[in-house]
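Worked problem 6 (solution included).
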Amino acid sequence: MREVMMLIVVLLPFFTGILVPLLPFRSRRSMWIYLETAVCVNSVLVLWLLYHMPEDRLTIFRFTGNLSVTLRLDGPGTVFAAIVALLWPLAMLYALEYMKQEDNEKSFYTFYVITYGIVLGVALAENILTMYFFFEMLSLVTLPLVMHERTREAVRASRMYLFYMLGGAAFAFIGMTFVLAYGSTSSFVAGGVFDPALTADKRENLLLIYMLCFCGFSVKTAMWPFSAWLPRASVAPTPVTALLHAVAVVNTGAFAAMRVTFYSFGTELLRGTWVQWTVMALVIITIVYGCSRALKETHFKRRLAWSTVSNLSYILFGVALMTPLGLAGALTHMVCHSFMKLCSFFCAGAVIHKTGRNYIHELDGFGWKMSKVFLMFTISAFALMGVPGLCGFVSKWYLVKAALDSGGTLAYAGVGALLVSALLTAIYMLSIVVRAFFPGKEFDYSKVKDVEDPNWMMLLLMGTAVLFMIFLGLHSGPLTEVLEQIVEEL
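Solution. The predicted structure is:
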């Protein structure tokens, strides 16, 4: 029964989304109830599944030999599935309020809900073929979401998104074929699937293939030099950008990088080689580059998008350390960043939804008129900076600890990059807060007389994310204990 439940939680959102344009809803409210109920039920099923861990795998389809589409729930999969199950109902409720002023609602919700099931497919993938299958399906179903507004800018952004995703898919496919051809199994195995004695003569080729595979999957995390698509994709409605930047696409890329590093190629093959230093150098460059671009950006959502570019590379930095402690730090930051960035985008979306203002210089004086929104945005800013007492401090502490424990020049350079990033994050986030609350003595508040906080639906969701940030910051013990247990098998 528990094995079958894995298939149910993947398929339920798929069929829920397919039925949206087909069902004769009497009112918009009835469609709301249908969508939110389906998403909440699926999240409850996922959490039940995490509590009652299936002991076996479920093969959905077998091609030949070890080529199969198979689901299995293991340690890293539980973390990713839990993030998705907790955040998707919040994102859906936010979307229901935000999208009521938008056109083509039904097509939006169709793809929005289907994406939920596909991301869970990535989390539950038992082998690299299954993960690749759902990974590429994710690119296809999120493309219409990026293009939703059908403006010229949205079409151009979606075209760039497609080109980058196809390029990444090609590199990832090369890595997958080598795992299938030379690995002992296609399944994810702690420590990797390559026998060092069997592949000694192919070691250099495998290192190059890993490099291509890592970069291919990391396109979805917007690692430099593949970063341009993510800020451009912020042209999509805010529920989509929150989905792209906090929950689904970017985390999927980071999760896939973890899988191929620790569970396919294996750190015994990779650690201490040129490919580790190359990957780590790219990640460190991305951390600083993303923050620097965020500092220059004047568009509200695009500034947060560049922040995501930097923060996702924190996760990749933990992966590139190729130690169990590094993986624990990467998983911790994946959890914490999801709540921090979701809250930030929810706040930005509320501003855009209520006022139509998109640029930071237009936010002067908003802090006192949208006091609840900007209070929660300030908390998310402090969390992203790594202020103690909030979850961002916990994840950054783990990453620094892992880097110092790992040793080496590039690991120490990574610590330096994290410190530089914290400083730049303070500047580009708090500059928004200062403009909102302290616009200057000569500011004319009549310019913002019609500005006000959104309704309870949006505020409730932001508040929930804030509570998670504070709780994880003050009581991180249970989370870190679970993550340390997960990486023990390595």
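Discussion: The chain is about 75% helix and 0% strand.
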